[in-house]
Amino acid sequence: MDRAVSEREDEGPTAGVVARSVDVLVVGGGPAGLAAGARLAAAGAGRVEVVERERQAGGIPRHCFHGGFGLRDLRRPMDGPAYARRLADDAVAAGARLRTGTTVTGWDGPRTLLITGPQGLERVTAGAVVLATGARERPRAARLVPGTRPAGVYTTGELQQAVNLYGHPVGTRALVVGADPVAYNAVLALRTQGVPVVALVTERPPLPAPLSVPLPALLTRRPVPVLHRTAVAELLGHGRLSGVRLRHRDGRTGVVACDTVVFTGDWVPDHELARRGGIPLDPGTRGPAVDTGYRTAEPSVFAAGNLLRGVERASSAAEEGRAAAERVLAHLAGEPWPGPGVPVRAEDPLLWVAPNRVHPGGPAPLLGRFVLRTSEPRAAARLTVTQDGRLLHRTRLPRPALPGRGLSVRADWLPRVDPDGGAVTVGLTDQ
Question: String of b and e for 354-393 (b: at least 16 CB within 10 Å)?
Fold first, then answer.
C-alpha cells in the first residue's frame, strides 16, 4: 500500500509552491483526526499526514481541565489535556506525521489541497482525504446579538483557553448564556478564578418535573439561578462590558450588571473547507453528508468527528475517526466508491440524524446505531423509520427525549431500504 512520495516545485503561475503526494491526508488534529491518523499509520496505510492549524494538537480537550475523558475509548480516566496528549502521542508513535501550526486553505483538485505553514505554501495530493475539522460554538456576532462591542465577551472555548491555558483574569461578575452541560463547564472555569456567576440564561422553558435531570454537583452545592424563556437582547458598555439587557418571553426586559458574558453551545460544524470543495452538506446537521462508511459524495474524501453534526463527546469523535480509518483502508485496497445512496432525513421535532446517507448492503454505522437530536422534550415516545410511507422500524425510547441529550436508533432496518426509493425519514411520535 506504500506509495512513493514526490516533492517538486511547480512552474508557471504556481512557481515556488512545493508539490507533494501522500497516501492519506487528515485535515484536523482533534480527537477524530488523531485517532484516524493513528489507526491508518499503524495499519500500514503508507505516508499518513495529520495537519492541525493550532500550535498544539488535541482539539477542544486541550483546554478542558475537568475530568471525564478517556474512560470510554482508552479505558482510563483523565482530564482533557492528558487525553489530547495521549491521542497525539499515539498518532506519532504509530508513524503518522503530525504537522501543527499549519492550515489547509483550499482545494486545487479533487484530492489536492493547498497548505500554508511555517515552510510556506504547499500543494499536497493524497490517495484519500479525511476531513476532521470539528465544530465551534457560535460567537456573539453569529448570534446577531446587538449592542456595543466591549471586552469581556467569550464563548466557552475562548473562556477555557484564557483561564486554563494562559491564566488570564476574565472578570469579576459573569452571566452564562445556555443551560446545557457545556454551560456548566463554563461555570466551572469561571469558579476556578473565583468569578461569581449571577445566572444561566436560556430561551428554553423549564422541563416538566418528570423530565427534569439532576444538576451536576458544582451547581447543587453552589446553586446558580437559571432564567428560562429568556434571551439576550443587548450588550452594554464601552471599553468593558457593564451589563446585559435580557428579554423575557412575556416581553419584559431588564438589565443584569456584569463585566463578563459567556455564550455557550449552539454548535456549528466547521465546514468551510468542505464547502470550498463542493462537498454536499446535510441540511439538518450542517456538516458534510456521509454514509455509514463516513464517505462523502466526493470520491476518496471521508469525514468524521464533530464536523458531521455539531458536537458529541470527544471519545465519540475519536471512535468515529477509527471507524472512518477502516473504510479508508478498504478504499486504498481497491474497494469501489459507492453511488449517492439514499438520504436519511429527520422529521420535526428531531433536528438531525447522522450518518445521513445509506447504501443497502453497506457497512453498519458505528456501534450499529444512528444518532439523533430532538428540539422538544418528550416523556414517552416512539422512534419510527419510514420510506415512501412504508414502515421500516419502530421502537419505544428507553428514556425521555430531551433537547441537548443524545438519542439513537438501531440500524437493523437497513436491509429493508429500497435503494431506488425516496428518502428515509426518522420521526418521533407520542403513540
Answer: bbbbbbeebbebbeeebbbbbeebbeebebbbbbeeeebb
Grid cell for residue 272: 468551510
CA torsion sign, 149 to 265 to 36 to 105? Answer: negative
With CA atoms as reference, report the closest residue to 426 among 360, 359, 349, 368: 349
Among 87, 77, 76, 80, CA closest to 66: 80
Report angle CA 56, 61, 65 to the nearest 5 degrees. Answer: 105
Tell me the three cell numbers of residue 94. Answer: 504509530
Q: Which three cell numbers, joined as nine digits, stand for 117? A: 505553514
Percentage of residues in the chain having pLDDT higher than 90: 76
Question: Do residues 116 and 102 lie in contact, with contact meaning Cβ atoms separated by under 8 Å?
Answer: yes
Residue 130 is which amino acid? V
Cα 423 to chain centroid, rounded: 25
Q: What's residue 5's pLDDT?
A: 43
C-alpha to C-alpha distances, 356 to 73, 286, 287, 288, nearest whole angstrom: 24, 11, 10, 9
Q: What is the pLDDT of residues 176-229, one digit of tens each?
A: 999 888 898 899 999 989 999 999 999 988 876 555 555 666 666 778 889 999
Question: Could you tell me the three cell numbers for 18?
Answer: 512545493
Helix-helix angle 31-42:314-332, to 10 degrees:
40
